[in-house]
């Protein structure tokens, strides 16, 4: 029936008869005599744990989600710390790289450049048009730190939406994973006979913008209640599309705003610990960003509010931030700069180009070093030791994804700072025992933010996602630490509490939407905070097993 639920070239090979959702339970006699749900939970978990590679586990769980969605989410919710590295970062990265090889069945929508002119009719093919509330849309052009994966990027949209369902109780049938196929510039895929996407380079910018304009308009008409999360677009397009559409449609960019918010939140908690150790005020922090792509600059923009919340002016806040890109320190006198780097480009330095990170650290004397560069091991022993020499509790956030692209591991960070580091990473690292004390790495991943931010925006029926809503999600997350978590110097709450955290964030986001006058569910305005929180919780979907 439809060309959109399957990669198009398979049209006619594997047609869907109805919904891609799991089939109803078989009739009596068609299952084993004793198939107790509780026992089956144990069986499924044992089957998962019997797989030895992350990718095999990913494939197994993807199959389980298809066969028995309730079981999948029940297990996921009960084993968050075990499941997230499989269905999400880092394993989802490997799954995307091999997507065209491990592909089993349609999940989500593929919209191709060939659909230009008829995108609306394609979108109508989705089986649950009226249920649609949240879509994660990628064009695969920069998946995690893995580069242009073309149509293989579908895995990231699916992974993020699984976390919306698990982490914020969004109803499964209201989620739409979308991958736009505008070509790929990765020759390995163009040459791969199994590649599932269009076999040409990415189309020129003008054609892509026309396609995006049509796509966004069609989405708003076909799914009037939909919130859109842009994901893993290449840097220029990420900024361009966010600015182009954010005042017109309810949307946010997860890499710019979600990552920005999650890092601001962890930074707020880290800066308090760091300032308590140094005796220096919060306003004196100096942040060095290693990496100036969409995530790096997005985070830097968001961290501006760390300083403005402490009473600094915008200009003063901006002066607390330094950027480093592949050519070294970013400063005006260096010459022509990409548009998105200009705001933070230093005006107060005009000497020779400083390229070496150690030299840059000696010049800036940062209290915090944040990596969003996708350069593995860029924070080597001497960088870490220098940061520890400058600060009693250095803040080191190694945020590139997945794990193998991280700027440093937690083990290295602990070792080379003698355990003083305040650490967060984009991908998960195991905890470390150091001098008899257990130290915990923070996972500064947008997975703490987007489920609650999205849920809040959906429940408020927000017309737009404002900066104030994003900031509210961040401050809500920072406030969500329990006394026990603070005792362990955690920068983020334990992931097992994701539902509780998402509900709290959603409540804060709804309040921010009301203040900004972008809410359409105006009946929520009269509720007290506790009523609103109860309302948010009552809207969460739960597996019934
Ligand atoms: O997906 C993740 O783990 C975080 C993220 O958005 C990215 O790295 O692009
Ligand atoms: Mg991303």
Structure characterization notes:
This protein is an alpha/beta fold and 545 residues long. The protein folds into three domains: 231 residues, 3-Layer(aba) Sandwich (Rossmann fold), CATH 3.40.50.10380; 153 residues, Rossmann fold (3-Layer(aba) Sandwich), CATH 3.40.50; 90 residues, no CATH class. Helix content is 43%, strand content 10%. The protein has a seven-stranded mixed sheet with strand order 8-7-6-9-10-11-14, with helices on both faces. It has a five-stranded parallel sheet with strand order 1-3-2-4-5, sandwiched between helices. Strands 12-13 form a two-stranded antiparallel ribbon. Strand 12 and strand 13 form a beta hairpin. The radius of gyration is 23 Å and the shape is globular. It starts with 36 loop residues before the first helix and ends in a 7-residue tail after the last helix. Oxaloacetate ion binds next to helix 12.
